[in-house]
Amino acid sequence: MSGSATPCPATRVTLGEILTQRSEIIPPRDNPSGSDIFVGLEHIESGTGRRLGSEPIDKSAMTGRKARFRPGDLVYGYLRPYLNKVWLADFEGLCSVDQYVYIVDARRADAEFVAWFMRSPQFLSRAPVDSGPGQLPRIRLHEVARVELDLPPWSEQKRVAAELRNQMCAAARMRAAVESSVDRARELEMTEATRLFLSEDASAWPVDALGEILKTCSGLTPSRARSDFFGGESPWVKTGELLDGTVTDTIEHVTGKALAETSLRLLPVDTLLVAMYGQGQTRGRTSLLGVPATTNQACFAVLPSEDIMNQQFLQYWFRVSYGRIREESEGRGGNRPNLNGVLLRQQKIPHPAMAIQRAVARRLSHVSETSQVVVDATVAARNSAEQLSSSLLRRAFSEGG
């Protein structure tokens, strides 16, 4: 971003001074009728606030409460706040009660400027995140209200918001190009993998539920309020970094203190990671660990077991099964078509003799060699785009911003 984000004098305010909660809740017990448009957490892109979709909703068939939003409202996902799901509504509809709906005081603040601030690392560092036993991490309503920001004059807010919007769009185009390049590079590999796993020989392979023959676990997100938990030596994998290859480094790292003071687990090399949820094509994608690493709670980890399963063989099976597994998660009902540990542990995994598994893995690895060069380059480009987005927000709302 050229120049300082806030060259004009700014006023220190709390979000509670410029945001008012819209408390229009529609409970099923009121017997609502008619149709509406629903925008849930799954419809909002992390970090950018871009709406990825919506779905029609029959209010007479609602099974849970919904919150009303109106054009210009700021819709904030307070569950798993590190996902930075903040959307500026441009039409009227309903959202889940896992989202706060705010009316922005337009006399003092530009709604888009406030939305960008709430997606920034500074917001998360100033808002304590609760993470109790059995609960998803969350930020409480009163905690959002206490967060402070420096509010420049209205015209300067508009300028900063527009500049961020343009630069974030450029970063999003870069990420989309990376995803497309990875897909093309993997197409040849998947054609051969599908042929092998659906062959007549494969139909005779023994199968068992994954959870019955292999050990699994998942990770967590250390408190963002603890700056001493991040910036260490241990890679910390997020689902967006699972691109059906091998993870050798990550955008973020955690410290030894995070490993010592939380239940975060350092996973060994060759652990297979499966994305349980994520934007766009992410859900169901995989990666093998090329280095010991930790993960967030959205990654399902299958630990290596040399006497039962060749991890490369298992990864290829998951990749061939990608579409089917995603369809199974979409058929479970609810507003979030995510995978979970129960569904993944129930997957029927083929496990022929280890010699056969290794032969299949070698054959497919040979096919993938030509595509891996492209994948490695595009992964590096994707990481650069992610770092750029975070850097833009950090710079825009740095001290005095």
**Broad structural category:** alpha+beta
**How many helices?**
11
**Unreliable stretches:** 1-6
Main beta-sheet strand count, sense and barrel state? 5 strands, mixed
Beta-strand level of the residues, as a percent range?
A: 15-25%
Strand order of the largest sheet: 13-20-17-18-15
Overall number of structural domains: 2
Globular, elongated, flat, extended or rod-shaped: what is the shape? globular
What CATH architecture of the largest domain do you see? Answer: Alpha-Beta Complex
The overall average pLDDT, rounded, is 87
Number of strands: 21
CATH topology of the largest domain: Adenine-n6-DNA-methyltransferase TaqI, Chain A, domain 2
Q: Termini, distance in Å?
A: 13 Å
Residue share in helix: 25-40%
Q: Would you state the CATH class of the largest domain?
A: Alpha Beta
What is the name of the CATH superfamily of the largest domain? DNA methylase specificity domains
Q: Compute the gyration radius: what is it?
A: 23 Å
Labels describing this entry:
401 residues; 36% helix; disordered N terminus; four-stranded antiparallel β-sheet; five-stranded mixed β-sheet; alpha+beta; Adenine-n6-DNA-methyltransferase TaqI, Chain A, domain 2; 2 domains; 11 helices
Task: Outline the fold blueprint.
Layout lengths: L10 E4 H4 E3 L3 E2 L8 E4 L16 E4 L7 E4 L4 E4 L8 E3 L4 E4 L2 E6 L6 H8 L2 H6 L14 H6 L1 E4 L2 H44 L9 E3 H4 L2 E3 L11 E8 L7 E3 L4 E3 L1 H6 L10 E4 L10 E4 L4 E2 L3 E4 L8 H10 L1 H9 L10 H5 L2 E3 L3 H43 L5
Parallel strand pairs: 14-19, 15-18
Antiparallel strand pairs: 1-11, 2-10, 3-6, 4-5, 6-9, 7-8, 7-10, 12-21, 13-20, 14-16, 17-18, 17-20
Helix pairs in contact: 5-8, 5-11
